[in-house]
Amino acid sequence: MEIKKELMYSKTHEWVKADGQKAYIGLTDYARIQLGQIVFIDLPEINSTAEAEQSLAEVESVKAVAEVLSPISGTVNEVNEALINNPELINEDVYGSWLVLIEMSDPAEINNLMNSEEYENFCKTLSEEESH
Amino acid sequence: MKRTPLYEKHLEYKGKLIDFGGWELPVEYVGIIPEHEAVRNSAGLFDVSHMGEVTVTGEDAEKYIQKMVTNDISNMDVMQIYYSPMCYPNGGVVDDLLIYKYNREKYLLVINAANTEKDVEWLQSNVSGNLKVKNVSSEYAQLALQGPKAQKILQKLTDKNLDDIKFFHFCDEVPIGEMKVFVSRNGYTGEDGFEVLVAPQEAEKLWDRIIEAGKEDGLLPAGLGARDTLRFEVCLPLYGHEINDSITPLEAGLGFFVKLDKDDFIGKEELMNQKSSGLKRKLCGIEMIDRGIPRAGFEVFSEGRKIGYITSGSYSPTLKKNIGLALMDIEFSEEGREVEVLIRNKLLKTKIIKKPFYAKKYKNKR
């Protein structure tokens, strides 16, 4: 499983790449492994409001339906439209396939997220729980 | 959770294990889509040891089975297999099963894993005449080798000419090395293929030999996920979805397997009434027009009125479309009609299409 050093992570397996007031949101490798091949994605409307820990998008694999929760609050500035017809791009490159770009209303929320080291430990705990 | 004799193989092949009706079984190994494609284009190997097996033996065996199931087994050949629903008096389905005929006094029934207990109870409580019903599920492991390359792969392992086993027929003494296994030509994928019954202690050895024989042809171990998408594309019913105790085989489009002209059988009266008064519901295929995947249980609407629900729905790996089976009010069931599916509080456009979604590719039919 791959974890990128420069990103921040949520407990629900979204990654955040902050750039000033803006942040790209995507799914982590852990989410990809759990879901399997993604065959459908539903992205939010541009200019809609994103709220931290609330539903932002939906992804579906053949067997599973998963909600993508927004790691931060703000306004949806852009969505990655290439994914709508080719959701499998996410499986090919999770960290290159951002889902939405959010204009953050409170950039300090980033501090509530985990850094790569914390996220790695978090995932380890999860897989240990699973194997018991 | 119960484990099949192939549990260690699922771990070895890194299967993603889930709870399937109380059985710990792999939903996928490398992925549902590659496994699905392997079965359509080459071959896949499934562990279906969780299926239940029941023997019916005795001089009244044929008469008894005739009473229990909706299909007519009176003209069955020996070593032939029939598919049939088994109904309650109200026409609802107890289970759907395969009937293997050795002779008029000896049959093997293969039933759904999750229904095994219920079926055995139902079968035993309806015994009349001179016969025995015995649950022999634990005496067998079962492998399904499915796909256009299935015969080529299995033939490498045996001197028995597999051309001699016709579609929906079986042979109970196929030599594979020092083993003698039970091979039938049938399956749950819409492709040519075989199901193999083997003693539990020989299951791992058989698995390894088939995997080895299939290597050069791209055989993959395949999980329950692919088994479901494969059967769904060819519209083979799944108990608990297309049929259950409140859906009759006629509503589910299984009328071909309901022989209302044979002597009395359980459910006959209700099914005759349903047929003569006209069906009210019909199982239809649907294809999404709007973006979304219909899933089992989602409701179907027309002009604000609920007209049915999805029994099975998925992204189709072969067709690359989002499709479903829906049990619908018959007034709304004609092909081409546009209706709506409620997906996450949104009514999304869909249209009724022809079944099956993918044509079956059976071989050696006679």
| Structural class determined from secondary elements of chain A | alpha+beta
H/E element sequence of chain B:
HEEHEEHEEEHEEHEEEHEHHEEEEEE
* Topology order of chain A in helix (H) and strand (E) letters: EEEHEEEEEHHEH
The number of strands of chain A is 9
Q: Identify the CATH class of chain A.
A: Mainly Beta
Intertermini distance of chain A: 20 Å
Q: Could you tell me how far the N terminus lies from the C terminus of chain B, measured between alpha carbons in angstroms?
A: 41 Å
CATH architecture of chain A: Beta Barrel
Q: What is the number of independent domains of chain B?
A: 3
Q: Taking strands numbered 1, 2, ... along the chain, how are they ordered across the largest sheet of chain B?
A: 10-11-12-9-3-13
Q: Fill in the CATH topology of the largest domain in chain B.
A: Gyrase A, domain 2
Quote the CATH topology of chain A. Answer: OB fold (Dihydrolipoamide Acetyltransferase, E2P)
Assembly category: heterodimer
Full CATH superfamily name of chain A? RNA polymerase II/Efflux pump adaptor protein, barrel-sandwich hybrid domain
Please write the CATH class name of the largest domain in chain B.
Alpha Beta
Mean pLDDT of chain B: 97
Description:
The complex is a heterodimer of chains A (132) and B (366). The mean pLDDT of chain A is 95. Chain A has a single domain (8-130), classed as OB fold (Dihydrolipoamide Acetyltransferase, E2P). The longest helix of chain A has 15 residues, at 116-130. Chain A contains four helices and nine strands. Chain A has helices at residues 29-35, 82-85, 88-92, 116-130, and strands at 8-9, 14-19, 22-27, 38-42, 49-50, 55-61, 65-69, 74-79, 100-104. Chain A is an alpha+beta fold and 132 residues long. In chain A, the strands form two sheets. Chain A has a six-stranded antiparallel β-sheet with strand order 1-2-3-9-8-5. A three-stranded antiparallel β-sheet of chain A has the order 4-6-7. In chain A, β1 and β2 (14-19) form a beta hairpin. By secondary structure, chain B is an alpha+beta fold. Chain B folds into three domains: 7-49 and 140-233, 2-Layer Sandwich (Gyrase A, domain 2); 53-136, Aminomethyltransferase beta-barrel domains (Alpha-Beta Plaits), CATH 3.30.70; 280-366, Aminomethyltransferase beta-barrel domains (Elongation Factor Tu (Ef-tu), domain 3, Beta Barrel). Helices cover 20% and strands 34% of the residues of chain B. Chain B contains eight helices and 19 strands. In chain B, the strands form four sheets. Chain B has a six-stranded mixed β-sheet with strand order 10-11-12-9-3-13. Chain B has a six-stranded antiparallel barrel with strand order 14-17-16-15-18-19. In chain B, β15 and β16 (305-316) form a beta hairpin. In chain B, α2 (32-41) packs across α7 (224-233). Chain B is globular. The N and C termini of chain B lie far apart (41 Å). At the A-B interface, β4 and β6 of A face α7 of B.
